[in-house]
């Protein structure tokens, strides 16, 4: 796979972007909590700046990604992100820390343009039989940075301060842009120049998803999986304190075990899971997540909880790899950006809904009941996938050219 220049280049670019984003996330989080004396209002604004653009700009960025040249879009997005970071660095040096939220917001917005363009290039230049392994490789990279990203971000901020952290972040974005320059020039058929208006193309993307049985099923699966994940994500610390009777600091070890298992799971799928159908892989990941979530909610033994988190983490990449592989196989190149812009908010939107009601649910019900409810939601997502499991792998789905 790494012999493919597009995979190799985008992979290396992604390494630098992941480094920049993790340094940004932890440096800004630690700096804001320090400067505001743990003010929950400003701390929450960081999450708003990170996730808000997904809802506001995902479909917009995806539509423009389908219209513009993918290589050029990715390079310009990285360079603009770097410029915004260095501009914010100058403001921070003058004593205004609130501009840090602006840096997070701008880079998050621009990622909604560059990420669909990367998926579009992979769709165009990676053989279909290798797509699942390529997705496993990128999922393994994400899991790897989930383990070491917080350590790197915290180390740079603790030893060198917010200014150096911002400089590192800007440098990573510039490095990514320079690496992407090595990609072959966009062909004329890759420009995605639109013959209709922007709004018409956005509506066409919505109609494209609505006309596809596979994409509709995946969208509903996204919603239930996101709701299930969001419902328990804020409650991990209560599992540590209430069920296990340990200090909340023990949570970091549970998270590291989960992240390391995700890395191993992604690597295993990359090497051994090439023959597994993506819909089967997705269903397996959801089933294991359902069982693991329920088990963690009822477990009062540290060793059992760690085992359940490790097993769940190992199979969790099946969810994202299965979904991304199905999206790539069943979406025409011209619609990659818009389909991603529609599907992404489905998961994140319902995850935020789950997170917003998690505290209320815990206060009303027991902790084990909330985790059981999350497991049931994962099972519902599996039931929605049953029609896809009964069908043979069809490869790329051709839809009406009129959409």
From TrEMBL:
Its main location: membrane. Keywords: Cell membrane, Membrane, Transmembrane, Transmembrane helix, Transport. It holds the Pfam family MFS_1. The chain crosses the membrane at residues 12-32, 44-64, 76-93, 134-158, 164-185, 218-241, 253-270, 282-300, 306-327, 339-361, 367-389. SUPFAM superfamilies: MFS general substrate transporter (SSF103473). It is found in: Cell membrane. The keyword Disulfide bond does not apply. Coiled coil: none annotated. It comes from the Bacteria. It is a multi-pass membrane protein. InterPro entries: MFS, MFS_trans_sf. This is MFS family permease.
């Amino acid at each position: 796979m790494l012999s493919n220049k597009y995979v190799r280049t985008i992979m290396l670019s992604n390494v630098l972007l992941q480094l920049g984003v993790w340094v940004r996330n932890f440096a800004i989080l630690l700096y804001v909590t320090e400067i505001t004396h743990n003010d929950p209002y400003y701390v929450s604004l960081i999450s708003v700046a990170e996730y808000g653009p997904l809802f506001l700009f995902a479909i917009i960025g995806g539509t423009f990604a389908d219209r513009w040249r993918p290589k050029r879009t990715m390079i310009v997005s990285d360079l603009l992100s770097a410029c915004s970071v260095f501009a914010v660095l100058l403001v921070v040096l003058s004593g205004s820390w609130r501009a840090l939220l602006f840096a997070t917001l701008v880079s998050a917005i621009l990622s909604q343009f560059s990420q669909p363009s990367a998926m579009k290039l992979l769709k165009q230049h990676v053989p279909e039989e290798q797509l699942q392994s390529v997705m496993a490789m990128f999922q393994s990279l994400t899991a790897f940075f989930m383990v070491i990203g917080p350590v790197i971000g915290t180390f740079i901020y603790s030893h060198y301060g917010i200014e150096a952290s911002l400089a590192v972040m800007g440098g990573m974005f510039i490095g990514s842009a320079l690496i992407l320059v090595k990609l072959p020039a966009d062909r004329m058929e890759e420009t995605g120049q639109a013959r209709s208006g922007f709004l018409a193309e956005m509506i066409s993307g919505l109609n494209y998803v609505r006309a596809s049985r596979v994409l509709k099923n995946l969208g509903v699966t996204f919603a239930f999986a996101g709701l299930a994940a969001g419902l328990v994500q804020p409650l991990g610390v209560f599992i540590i304190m209430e069920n296990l009777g340990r200090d909340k600091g023990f949570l970091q070890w549970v998270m590291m075990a989960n992240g390391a298992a995700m890395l191993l799971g992604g690597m295993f799928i990359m090497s051994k899971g090439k023959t597994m159908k993506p819909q089967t892989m997705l269903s397996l990941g959801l089933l294991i997540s359902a069982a693991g979530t329920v088990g963690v909610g009822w477990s009062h033994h540290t060793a059992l909880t760690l085992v359940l988190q490790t097993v769940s983490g190992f199979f969790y990449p099946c969810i994202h790899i299965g979904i991304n592989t199905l999206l790539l196989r069943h979406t025409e190149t011209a619609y990659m950006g818009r389909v991603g812009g529609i599907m992404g908010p489905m998961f994140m939107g319902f995850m935020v809904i789950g997170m917003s009601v998690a505290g209320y649910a815990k206060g009303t019900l027991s902790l084990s009941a909330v985790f059981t409810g999350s497991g049931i939601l994962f099972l519902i997502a599996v039931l929605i996938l049953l029609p896809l499991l009964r069908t043979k792998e069809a490869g790329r789905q051709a839809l009406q050219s009129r959409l």
